[in-house]
Design goal:
By secondary structure, this protein is α+β, with helices and mostly antiparallel strands. Helix content is about 55%, strand content about 20%. The chain is built from seven helices and four strands. The chain starts with a helix and ends with a strand. This is DUF4956 domain-containing protein.
């Protein structure tokens, strides 16, 4: 394989890994979106480094010393992110040493494993969650905005209990919701607590 063909193939595998990361994971936000973009460049760079090193042990040690000054200040959020970084690195390395068939087979098996993880992770989510929201008395009867917010994240929302406590100073709403597969509880808590008058939000799996 020529150098140009190896670099283009590494680019193609990098794009494929990035797309697989987006498709099989939660909706991309913040660092996740940046990591998906970095996977493409990472695959190309590793293929380039592999060709620079070749069979030279001296070059390998020189590159290790040169790259040791690099510091990654953004931590990876979970082990899945680490696995995809390694996935891009290994594919780039395989292409760099002239093993496109190995890279293709590895990508295919890795894609099946990632898709299986996505299916398994989704099946582990609770069928329904219980949401408890405490709101000040002045806005206690206005639950429409709470319901609308929950409907933006769930396939089913039902307010099944309302209770006034603290001598009428606060009202507690209890919802039964069916979450989407990719729903992050911390995200919905942040949006609910940003609503005027909301004092606290608690989310737990329904028993």
């Amino acid at each position: 394989m020529s150098i140009l063909s190896r670099m283009l193939l590494a680019l193609a595998f990098g794009v494929a890994v990035s797309m697989l990361y987006r498709i099989t994971g939660p909706q991309d936000r913040g660092n996740r979106s940046r990591l998906a973009s970095s996977l493409v460049l990472l695959s190309v760079l590793i293929a380039m480094v592999t060709q620079v090193v070749g069979d030279s042990v001296a070059r390998a040690f020189s590159l290790v010393g040169a790259l040791s000054v690099v510091r990654f200040r953004t931590p990876l959020e979970d082990t899945r992110d680490t696995a995809f970084v390694l996935f891009a690195v290994i594919l780039g390395m395989a292409v760099g040493v002239g093993q496109p068939l190995l890279a293709g087979i590895g990508f295919g098996i890795g894609a099946i494993a990632a898709a299986g993880y996505r299916f398994h992770a989704g099946s582990d989510l609770p069928r329904s969650w219980q949401v408890e929201i405490s709101r000040t008395a002045a806005l206690a009867t206005a639950s429409a905005d709470l319901t609308d917010t929950l409907r933006g994240f769930c396939t089913k929302v039902e307010c099944w209990a309302t209770r006034i406590h603290k001598k009428g100073e606060c009202t507690e709403f209890r919802y039964q919701i069916t979450p989407r597969i990719d729903l992050d509880p911390s995200e919905i808590i942040a949006l609910l607590t940003a609503i005027d008058g909301v004092q606290s939000v608690e989310i737990s799996p329904s028993k």
